[in-house]
Amino acid sequence: VGLVLTPLVVRACGLEGLGLWAASWSLAHATSLLDLGVGASYTRFTSKAIALSDTAGLNRILGAGIGFHLALGTIIAAVALLFGPRALGIVVPDGPLAPQANTVFGCTLATVVLRTVLSAYRGVVAGAQRIDLLGRIGSAVSVLEGCGAALALGRGWGLAGMAVNSLIASALASLLEAVAAHRLVRGLRVAPFAAGREEWRELLSFGMRIQIVRAAEILGAHVPR
């Protein structure tokens, strides 16, 4: 989908538009460095809970994880609101794309934060060994997102329209993953912050070990852009 959209973006918004689009996603994904590996830990804890038939324990872990992500998302949003406009004035020069920059960066950042906060559902589906289901959801949403992006460019909505389209597509993907997670794990209950000290310690301890590797992957993939 990205390969097909690239020439459409260049035709509609120029090389500068393609650069802004790539840079906005790279900056948004850089916030994943603050995740501390929590999102990547859900799969392990879900598999363990299913093996031990411990849905209550899984619910407590998810409560800790989603609580952590909600707090993290709030901090990221506050920093973006306070310093985002000034930073964009440095990164994006004056020109035809400048008026779209706030919407593009805002929506791409919101997309990444939304997917991070709701990553527990994706982790539950993966931990239930239904990666095939995640693949079907991801493929279907990617095609829909690509069609929506092409429509936005064709109607003259530019990068801002593409960014809004991506945010809507991410919300749809998270909704489908949530439905799948609740069907796969009966008794699943997500209550943010509903966890004890032991769940917080176990989640963050395991996550930090994963994050060391993930940080290198994130930096290697996005810093060059």
* Cα radius of gyration in angstroms: 19 Å
How does the overall form come out from the CA principal axes?
Answer: globular
As a percent range, the share of helical residues equals: over 70%
Sheet with the most strands, sense and barrel status: none
Q: Total strand count, please?
A: 0
Q: pLDDT average, as an integer?
A: 90
H-E string: HHHHHHHH
Strand content: under 5%
Distance between the termini: 19 Å
Oligomer state equals single chain
Low-pLDDT segments: none
List the total number of helices: 8
Structural class: mainly alpha
Description:
There is one protein chain. This protein has 225 residues and is an all-alpha fold. It is 83% helix and 0% strand. It is built from eight helices and no strands. α1 crosses α6, α2 packs antiparallel against α3 and α3 packs antiparallel against α4. It is globular. The two termini are 19 Å apart. The model has no long low-confidence stretch (mean pLDDT 90).
What's a quick, concise take on this entry?
With 225 residues, the protein is mainly α. It has helices at residues 2-30, 38-52, 55-91, 98-117, 119-127, 131-154, 158-184, 197-222.
What key attributes describe this structure?
225 residues
Secondary-structure map:
Layout: H1 2-30, H2 38-52, H3 55-91, H4 98-117, H5 119-127, H6 131-154, H7 158-184, H8 197-222
Helix pairs in contact: 1-4, 1-6, 1-8, 2-3, 2-5, 2-8, 3-4, 4-7, 5-7, 6-7
